[in-house]
Amino acid sequence: MKMLNEWSEWLTLDAGTLNDAASSIPKKSVYLIRSRRAFSRVFGVSPLVYIGAVEGNSNRSTSQRMNGLVAQNNPPHTAFNGIQKLLKLGETLEFCVWQSELPDPEAVKASLLCFYEKIHLELPPLNHQRGAKNDP
């Protein structure tokens, strides 16, 4: 599997950058949000703060979903409050996106969360559940 070659470059998470990148972000994909510094985890450290995906039945595209991280949407993005708190604390956040459209982004997100949890013994700080298709 060539997972590392399919990710976009890391870009600053803000409304302007998201708007500029919107046309190159696949409609149904997975995205990662990281800080420029690593946070202590139960085991080790990681800069990742959130792993996200567009649900298969969602009417929103990946870029629309990600815009909900920096602008209040209705309904709000599940990580909106945490992202806003990190930004207010002066953290610089970045994002990258899987560059091709995925048939089941939620399954990929679930696998990434499972992998992260196996390494760090917990989920990323702003992910509150594993996802519908995770390993038990």
Task: Please give a structural write-up.
- 28% of the residues lie in helices and 20% in strands.
- Strand 2 and strand 3 form a beta hairpin.
- With 136 residues, it is an alpha+beta fold.
- The model has no long low-confidence stretch (mean pLDDT 87).
- The two termini are 23 Å apart.
- It has helices spanning 15-21, 62-67, 80-88, 105-120, and strands at 11-12, 30-40, 45-53, 93-97.
- A four-stranded antiparallel beta sheet has the order 1-4-2-3.
- It is globular, with a radius of gyration of 14 Å.
Brief digest:
By secondary structure, the protein is an alpha+beta fold. The protein has helices spanning 15-21, 62-67, 80-88, 105-120, and strands at residues 11-12, 30-40, 45-53, 93-97.
Going across the major beta sheet, what is the strand order? 1-4-2-3
Helix content: 25-40%
Written as H for each helix and E for each strand, in order along the chain, the element string is: EHEEHHEH
Number of strands: 4
Oligomer: single chain
> Which whole number gives the mean pLDDT?
87
Distance between the termini: 23 Å
Radius of gyration: 14 Å
The geometry reads as globular
Q: In terms of topology, how is this protein built?
A:
Elements: E1 11-12, H1 15-21, E2 30-40, E3 45-53, H2 62-67, H3 80-88, E4 93-97, H4 105-120
Antiparallel strand pairs: 1-4, 2-3, 2-4
